[in-house]
From TrEMBL:
Region: Disordered, residue numbers: 312-341
UniProt biased composition (Low complexity): 315-341
Lineage: Bacteria, Pseudomonadati, Pseudomonadota, Alphaproteobacteria, Sphingomonadales
Record gene name: coxB
Alphabetized InterPro entries for the sequence: CcO_II, CcO_II-like_C, CcO_II_C, Copper_CuA, Cupredoxin, Cyt_c_oxidase_su2, Cyt_c_oxidase_su2_TM_dom, Cyt_c_oxidase_su2_TM_sf
Protein name: Cytochrome c oxidase subunit 2
Cofactor note text: Binds a copper A center.
A molecular function (GO) term: oxidoreductase activity
Keyword set, alphabetical order: Copper, Electron transport, Membrane, Metal-binding, Oxidoreductase, Respiratory chain, Signal, Translocase, Transmembrane, Transmembrane helix, Transport
Natural source organism: Parasphingorhabdus flavimaris
């Protein structure tokens, strides 16, 4: 009877599998923010100003920066991490190259030497009567102490790096809310008028026209100021995603119903690419991350181009409104006094 039930469950599962796959394929695609830009970018060469205009942004305020080959992106034949442009990334890169790699090479060579030595030294021809020794206090102390020392040498800088990565953001840090969707990203700026930028992957033709790497380039970028800590609030609207920028040593999961926080600071202007790093469905491999790092002046212009407000300007506008309200009150009081007289 048990086998009969299992057979029916398996059969029902096989029947429903094509239906589930068809439903997944029928899921709605990410919203296309700018259909006009897509048609314009099919040309062989499209100037950055045209791209900015097509996206609805004033080219006088913002022109998309062109990426630098080998900076913030993978390189052909690369065997090392990407060049790092954050303090945590530089520290992590140093730990890897100065501590971990030499230790791995050293331990591997030592084990290889011992293996070869044992094979030749204790072969049957050279050791017809094998020793029956089962314990050696000195050797046991060595193979206990040395691994402990190795782990301590690795643990001290690693724990320091881990603590550094999750230090709280300063109070004046810019806040950006990153939301993962199937299969695109949304970047909200609550400190700058709470507008949101929707970011979709460019087609191969569009990426070539803009001079950007295909499957890494996005139509709208997350823009942040250079050298300033940015508090990222990362969440998801549907399934688990992961926001990752290799050149900044940054990776944090986006979980529905939860907000994860981490500080991002990139110390060089440029364009930096990443990808969703958590399997999230059929188009997981097609939701790239493009981060553009600008000077503070250019960042403020980008905010204005998107209809947002700059922090300082909003603070200056508030007293002006209060003064106008106070003046209106004074005029009304004067009019009332005159009417009474």
């Amino acid at each position: 009877m048990t086998h009969f039930v299992k057979a029916w469950i398996l059969a029902i599962g096989l029947i429903l599998t094509p239906t589930a796959l068809s439903a997944q394929e029928a899921l709605p695609a990410a919203p296309v923010v700018d259909p006009v830009a897509s048609s314009e970018l099919e040309a062989a060469e499209v100037p950055a100003e045209a791209a900015a205009t097509a996206s609805g942004l004033d080219p006088a305020l913002y022109t998309p920066m062109k990426p630098t080959e080998g900076i913030g992106m993978p390189v052909d034949g690369g065997i090392d991490f990407q060049e790092q442009f954050s303090e945590t990334g530089k520290t992590a890169h140093w730990i890897n190259n100065a501590i971990l790699v030499p230790m791995m090479v050293g331990v591997s060579l030592l084990v290889l030497f011992l293996l070869i030595w044992v094979v030749f030294r204790f072969r049957r021809g050279a050791n017809a009567v094998p020793s029956k020794t089962t314990h050696n206090t000195f050797i046991e102390i060595i193979w206990t102490v040395i691994p402990v020392l190795i782990l301590v040498v690795i643990a001290v800088p690693s724990i320091s790096l881990l603590a550094e990565q999750f230090e709280p953001a300063p109070e004046d840090a810019l806040t950006v809310k990153v939301t993962g969707y199937q299969w695109y990203w949304g970047y909200g700026y609550p400190d700058n008028g709470d507008f949101e930028v929707i970011s979709n992957m460019l087609t191969e033709e569009e990426a070539d026209a803009r001079g950007e790497p295909y499957q890494l380039a996005a139509d709208n970028r997350m823009v942040i100021p250079v050298g300033k800590p940015v508090k990222l609030l990362i969440t998801a609207a549907d399934v688990i995603h992961s926001f990752a920028i290799p050149a900044a040593w940054f990776k944090l999961d986006a979980v529905p119903g939860r907000i994860n926080e981490k500080v991002l600071q990139i110390d060089r202007e440029g364009v930096y690419y990443g990808q969703c790093s958590e399997l999230c469905g059929a188009r997981h491999g097609f939701m790239p991350i493009t981060v553009e790092v600008l000077s503070e002046e250019k960042f403020n212009n980008w905010v204005r181009a998107n209809g947002g407000t700059v922090k300082g300007e909003a603070a200056e506008a508030a007293p002006t409104d209060a003064d106008a309200s106070e003046a209106t009150t004074e005029i009304a009081s004067a009019d009332a006094a005159a009417a009474t007289n």
